[in-house]
Specification:
The protein is mainly α. The protein is built from 23 helices and 2 strands. The protein has a domain at 1-127 and 134-170 and 194-270. Strand 1 (127-128) and strand 2 form a beta hairpin. One of its GO terms (cellular component) is condensed chromosome, centromeric region.
């Protein structure tokens, strides 16, 4: 097999050119179960031996003499064949053997990442940047890293797929009494196997997380001119999507290593901007499919690099702005219903980003799905609360400081623009209190109530807000009338405080 290890489209492609691997090594003995288990154990011992050599020598294993680029003494064909056989047959391994495989593969990934991050005195002199300032690791090291990350990805993919299938079968069949018929010994064995599987999933997630972070931080030493290999750097993202599918709650998020999955995606976005469109498309697809994804995606937008702009959040808002809402009847379609909460979730943590891209979302106020209109209204509430605090801080800063004339002019111009923006957003809120759908009318009144209680409504708007609340007391929907009463009470209390002041 050639030294280069291009990432295959599927595991089965490894049996064709240029890999030319076999399902089993030539000396694999499978005459009976005992011989088969011993053959698998021999392959795992081979991996452990290579890991010890990597731990002792680090990058020195990959320094090849000039003219011998095709030689790879560590990640040779025998090791790759062992990895392929073990990962391909991981489901048929005994639990203890599968745990040893996971430990060995994770140890190899940890060792490669550690050698890259802490090269010590051993530095590859074969390649470098054009100015010679930063040394780039050898091709054999890149191939070894890509190979082990791919096999770790495949092992995690098979594990997550099996876990997802088990949950679906359990949900479909329920408890039909079979568990009770089994003895306590069998139940203990099943619990022990479940704990071992959870530990394996956690170890794999930790190793893949470290690989993603290392490729992000060390891309200048890993690839020429810091241009990453998309097929390699995208592997952590591909498994992270599957991990997030299972993160439906606090317990499930911990079990599926949801935090590590978010960090993997964030590291990929920061290290490989060329994959941004692919990441955005995958996240939008997850948002359409699962109703628990909106808070996770909003949290992810807080983890990426935000200088000069939060490009991930911006692209996601642009995708939402491009949504085709025609044909959605009453906002009942699950896709729009799952995507819409992202707008308000993102406005709660990054209101400035949503405000900068609000013009992309405002056309949806005239669309059919009420959930989308209500989400935009809720996001406007978050923006107004944050902008009100910012405006007060700027005004206090202007009074307390005595800057030069140009600075004061710029600050005054910014405050004036913020005032115009706030006025336009309040106009949208007031207009949507007469929306055709009661849910959106209620959402608008709820936002006005929150703004009034937080004293974020300007004094010149108190009377108009009160008039709107009194008018909505005649609404035909009980929910809207209840919110209107709350707004009336909050506005009356706000007016009382203003008179006392």
């Amino acid at each position: 097999m050639a030294t280069a290890f291009p990432i295959p489209a599927s595991l089965q492609e490894l049996e064709s050119s240029p890999y030319n691997l076999l399902p089993y090594p030539h000396d694999f003995d499978d005459d009976d179960e005992a011989a088969r288990a011993e053959s698998f154990d021999k392959l795992i011992r081979l991996l452990d031996s290579g890991n010890r050599s990597l731990s002792s020598n680090g990058l020195g294993l990959f320094d090849v003499p000039d003219g011998e680029e095709d030689m790879d003494a560590w990640n040779d064909s025998e090791r790759i064949q062992a990895l392929y056989t073990l990962v391909r047959k991981s489901d048929s391994l005994a639990p203890a053997a599968r745990s040893r495989l996971v430990k060995s593969l994770c140890s190899a990934v940890h060792g490669l990442c550690s050698a890259l991050a802490n090269p010590g005195v051993v530095m590859s002199q074969q390649q470098g940047t054009q100015d010679g300032s930063t040394s780039v690791v050898s091709q054999s090291f890149r191939d070894a890293l890509a190979c082990h990350i791919y096999f770790l990805f495949t092992l995690m993919f098979l594990t997550e797929s099996k876990e997802k299938l088990g949950k679906s079968l359990l949900g479909g069949n329920g408890t039909n009494g079979k568990t009770k018929s089994k003895g306590g010994r069998s139940k203990k064995s099943k619990d022990s196997e479940g704990d071992m599987s959870a530990a394996n999933r956690s170890a794999c997630a930790e190793a893949m997380h470290i690989a993603a972070i290392t490729m992000c931080e060390q891309k200048s030493r890993l690839w020429k001119r810091s241009v990453p290999d998309e097929t390699v750097v995208g592997l952590p993202c591909r498994i992270a999507y599957q991990m997030l599918e299972s993160a439906t709650g606090v317990v499930a998020r911990k079990a599926s290593s949801g935090d590590e999955a978010l960090d993997m995606i964030a590291a990929t976005v920061d290290s490989a901007p060329c994959l941004l469109n692919t990441v955005v498309a995958a996240l939008v697809d997850l948002l359409h499919t699962y109703d628990h994804m909106a808070p996770l995606v909003a949290e992810l937008c807080c983890k990426v690099n935000e200088k000069p702009t939060n490009i991930l959040a911006t692209e996601l808002l642009r995708e939402i702005g491009r949504l085709d809402t025609e044909g959605e009847q009453g906002g009942k379609a699950s896709g729009i219903k799952n995507v819409a909460p992202l707008i308000s979730e993102l406005a709660a943590v990054r209101p400035r980003v949503v405000l900068s891209n609000l013009s992309l979302l405002l056309p949806h106020l005239d669309s059919e799905p009420y959930v989308l209109r209500s989400a935009i209204i809720s996001s406007i509430g978050h923006i107004l609360v944050r902008e009100d605090r910012t405006l007060i801080e700027n005004e206090i800063g202007d009074v307390a400081s005595e800057g030069d004339g140009e600075t004061k002019k710029d600050d005054g111009r910014q405050i004036a623009n913020m005032g115009k923006t706030r006025s336009a957003l309040f106009d949208i809120l007031c207009e949507r209190t007469r929306d055709i759908t009661s849910f959106t009318r209620g959402a608008s009144l709820k936002v006005l109530n929150d703004l009034t209680e937080k004293q974020s409504v300007p004094l010149d708007r108190i009377m108009s807000v009160t008039e709107i609340a009194i008018d909505r007391l005649n609404d035909k929907t009980v929910m809207v009338r209840r919110y209107a009463m709350q707004v009336s009470h909050a506005a009356a209390s706000s007016q009382s405080r203003s008179l006392l002041i």
